[in-house]
């Protein structure tokens, strides 16, 4: 008789949905079984994504790095007056998008800190001078600029309300928010999210659910190595699966590894090992199933790209020929031809994709304005002025 871990692995190989008990049983698989775990994960991936891995050619637009949260591992955020503080002007956004398009970019990733207007009065005054009340309203203006420069916006603006997402929906083909981890323990004193109210998992789960109710194609994921245990990783993946099974709107899930950075509260923390990352990716594939788009960042795992393919990913996320990864500025994007070589040696092609997956390019998930833009883009006729 199979033990629970082996039984769960057999169920996954047979293509059956793992229940919660089976998902947790997979934790019992010893490290020596990592190759077997990956083999099943790759087999599952191949059923739905058999020939090609994808990536999104993007420009990374760090709209503002002001943020009311203080995560112990972050080098992105700043306070007003800090060295390196910025808020991009609409002119800067336009210029970046124009140059990105000329280099073949499709996606405009708008990324920023959480609700700086609440924490910093001066920033609220700056927004008022720009004719908007909130950071999200400024992001809406930035999305219009990106569209005029014929890039497709994908916004990750931290925790947003239902009304804020409704405001951005007609201007975005997709949106995102990393769950990171479902455990409230990570907000305890001495833990990485203690001074980060917007990292409350209940708030993040609520936003992801409301995005589902609004029929927004959505990207989320987990961050590993910040003090969580493997059971909490599995719990987080199960929470994401439950949301997708209820709303059907999660277009991709990211498994991202923590990288310690000098000058942060977690500078001396040890990064998760390569085997740990590979194991988590394989678990994610088994829990989320064959059809989910599963992503891992290639710039954070430059020596493990082939192993990530073997563990079941089918996407590399956004890669930019123009802008750095502002969240991980020390980690350069891979050259596309080099990444293509890695994929080909693993038996896969590598192709660019749009920031919304094909199964979400329909009237259910895209606002009519965005659907019209997508039709032009799909027909190769996307041009300036497609959206006013």
Number of helices: 14
Alpha-beta classification: alpha/beta
According to CATH, the homologous superfamily is Aldolase class I
Mean pLDDT: 95
List keywords for this structure.
388 residues, alpha/beta, TIM Barrel, nine-stranded parallel sheet, globular, disordered C terminus
Description:
The structure is a single chain. By secondary structure, the protein is of the alpha/beta class. It has one domain: TIM Barrel (Alpha-Beta Barrel). It is 39% helix and 13% strand. It has helices spanning 4-13, 20-25, 34-48, 90-102, 116-119, 121-129, 135-148, 162-168, 201-213, 230-247, 274-288, 305-310, 336-345, 368-378, and strands at 52-62, 107-111, 152-156, 174-176, 218-224, 250-257, 293-295, 315-319, 349-352. Strands 1, 2, 3, 4, 5, 6, 7, 8 and 9 form a 9-stranded parallel beta sheet that branches. Helix 9 links the parallel strand 4 (174-176) and strand 5 (218-224). Helix 3 (34-48) packs across helix 11 (274-288), helix 9 (201-213) runs parallel beside helix 10 and helix 10 (230-247) runs parallel beside helix 11 (274-288). The termini are far apart.
């Amino acid at each position: 008789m199979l033990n629970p871990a082996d039984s769960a692995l057999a169920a996954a190989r047979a293509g059956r949905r793992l229940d919660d008990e089976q998902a947790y049983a997979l934790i019992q698989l010893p490290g020596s079984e990592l190759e077997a775990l990956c083999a099943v994960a790759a087999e599952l991936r191949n059923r739905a994504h058999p020939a090609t891995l994808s990536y999104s050619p993007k420009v990374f637009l760090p709209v503002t790095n002001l943020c009311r949260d203080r995560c112990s591992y972050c080098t992105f955020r700043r306070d007003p007056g800090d060295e390196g503080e910025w808020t991009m002007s609409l002119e800067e956004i336009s210029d970046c998008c124009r140059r990105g398009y000329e280099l073949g970019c499709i996606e405009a990733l708008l990324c920023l800190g959480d609700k700086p207007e609440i924490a910093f009065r001066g920033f609220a005054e700056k927004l008022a001078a720009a004719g908007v009340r909130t950071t999200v309203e400024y992001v809406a203006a930035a999305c219009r600029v990106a569209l005029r420069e014929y890039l497709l916006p994908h916004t990750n603006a931290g925790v947003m309300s239902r009304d804020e997402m409704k405001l951005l929906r007609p201007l975005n083909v997709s949106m995102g928010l990393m769950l990171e981890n479902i455990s409230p323990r990570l907000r305890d004193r001495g833990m990485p999210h203690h001074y980060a109210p917007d990292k409350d998992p209940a708030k993040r789960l609520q936003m992801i659910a409301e995005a589902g109710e609004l029929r927004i194609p959505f990207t989320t994921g987990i961050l590993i190595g910040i003090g969580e245990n493997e059971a909490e990783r599995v719990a987080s993946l199960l929470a994401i699966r439950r949301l997708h099974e209820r709303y059907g709107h999660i277009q991709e899930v990211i498994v991202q590894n923590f990288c310690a950075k000098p000058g942060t509260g977690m500078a001396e923390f040890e990064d998760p090992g390569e085997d740990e990352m590979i194991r988590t990716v394989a678990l994610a594939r088994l829990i989320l199933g064959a059809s989910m788009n599963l992503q891992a960042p290639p710039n954070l795992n430059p020596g493990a790209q082939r192993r990530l393919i073997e563990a079941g990913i089918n996407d590399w996320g956004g890669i930019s020929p123009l802008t750095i990864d502002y969240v991980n500025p020390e980690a350069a994007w891979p050259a596309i031809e080099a990444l293509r070589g890695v994929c080909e040696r693993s038996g896969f092609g590598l192709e660019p994709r749009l920031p919304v997956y094909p199964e979400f390019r329909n009237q259910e998930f895209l606002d009519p304005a965005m659907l019209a833009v997508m039709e032009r883009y799909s027909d190769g006729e996307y041009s300036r002025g497609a959206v006013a």
